[in-house]
Amino acid sequence: SQQGEEDPQALSIQEGENATMNCSYKTSINNLQWYRQNSGRGLVHLILIRSNEREKHSGRLRVTLDTSKKSSSLLITASRAADTASYFCASLWGRRALTFGSGTRLQVQP
Amino acid sequence: DAGVTQSPTHLIKTRGQQVTLRCSPKSGHDTVSWYQQALGQGPQFIFQYYEEEERQRGNFPDRFSGHQFPNYSSELNVNALLLGDSALYLCASSLGHNPGNTMYFGEGSWLTVV
Known about the structure:
The complex is a heterodimer of chains A (110) and B (114). Chain A is an all-beta fold and 110 residues long. Helix content of chain A is 0%, strand content 58%. The model of chain A has no long low-confidence stretch (mean pLDDT 91). Chain B is mainly β and 114 residues long. Chain B is 0% helix and 50% strand. Chain B is built from no helices and eleven strands. In chain B, the strands form two sheets. In chain B, strands 2, 4, 5, 6, 9, 10 and 11 form a seven-stranded mixed β-sheet that branches. Chain B has a four-stranded antiparallel β-sheet with strand order 1-3-8-7, with no helix packed on it. In chain B, a hairpin with a 5-residue loop joins strand 7 and strand 8. The N and C termini of chain B lie far apart (37 Å). The model of chain B has no long low-confidence stretch (mean pLDDT 94). Classes of the chains: A mainly beta (110), B mainly beta (114). Chains A and B meet through strand 4, strand 5, strand 9 and strand 10 of A and strand 5, strand 9 and strand 10 of B.
């Protein structure tokens, strides 16, 4: 079963707008990761946030983590059509496996 | 520097047949994990190999088996294929099995069972 669940399942915005995706997880984590997947392709690692961090930035990406609520959010600022993809949060299960949610499908309209 | 490579990219098999999928990890990586991703779902962990041994296994039946070779490449075998095995199979590699290490994914192998 999947530990993380993203919300919303689908999001459609205009180019230039910000996109926010949320992730909830069930058990304690050491870190939480966000991945991107273009349609039918492999996953690309975007950012990792550790359990002792509350916020992290990477370019146009901003990730927050609230361990008390077992939730994280991914913000993409000034979105571009090329940001159209599915976004997944993932956390460790056991010592070695990543467990993914079902993803948020982001559509950025040019 | 080659990333993670998987083969074949697409294949069609008949129910009951067996399939072997292959993965070459990113240069310098020694750990390989396999994931199954059904259409519209997130990837599900199958198993991970490190030092040629299966280190952790997900909730998949014994029909799913794997192997890691001395050069760190890996194979995923699925026996007695079911229609429900149709999915994108993703291989991910990392350096060591530290939980914090970033995983790099290949483009996947699309398996269709008819």
